[in-house]
Amino acid sequence: DGTDQWGGVENGLVRRGPNALNGEEFYTDTNGFVKDKVQALHLVDSALLVGTATNGIFRFDLTTRSFTKIPWDYGNLGNSINAIASHFDQLYVATNNGLIIMGLDGGDRTIINTEFGLAHNSIHVVYKDKKNSIWIGTKARYLYEIKENQLITHEFAAKGEADIYSISEDNAGRIWFATAENGAYSFDGENFRSYTSVSGLK
Question: Which of 42, 83, 138, 154 supports an S-S bond with 49, CB 3.0-4.6 Å?
Answer without folding.
Answer: 42
